[in-house]
From TrEMBL:
SUPFAM superfamilies: Bifunctional inhibitor/lipid-transfer protein/seed storage 2S albumin
A single GO molecular function term of this UniProt record: fatty acid binding
Taxonomic source organism: Macleaya cordata
Protein name: Bifunctional inhibitor/plant lipid transfer protein/seed storage helical domain
Pfam family, one: LTP_2
Lineage top rank: taxon: Eukaryota
Gene Ontology biological-process entries: systemic acquired resistance
Phylogenetic lineage: Eukaryota, Viridiplantae, Streptophyta, Embryophyta, Tracheophyta
Signal peptide start-end: 1-22
Bifunctional inhibitor/plant lipid transfer protein/seed storage helical domain ranges (all copies): 33-110
Keywords linked to the UniProt accession: Signal
Amino acid sequence: MEAPMKKYICLVSLILVVVVLAGVERTDGAGECGRASPDREAWKLAPCAMAAQDQHADVSDSCCAQVKKLGQNPSCLCAVMLSNTAKNSGVNPEIAVTIPKRCNLADRPVGYKCGAYTLP
């Protein structure tokens, strides 16, 4: 009876090790925006489309709310603003990086280098 119990414990231990290692690999493989790609996250900034193309356009409350959420992770916010989705939708990165300031976000990532751009 003792031998089957040892096999069972070894099997359970092996399964636990595999599960833990799989979780660690997934975490290490996460990008700037965690498990979501910057292109996917860019869709959340759809309310910012006009403000990201024209520095004189009003920035909507819904845009500011999304920028505030993404701005908690400056590297994600930058990756989103410089993503292929943003570029393909006509976003001007020079203007897009001004949106956190135009939203008057007190806790925005000031001076954060975003590609060739710096968040004011």
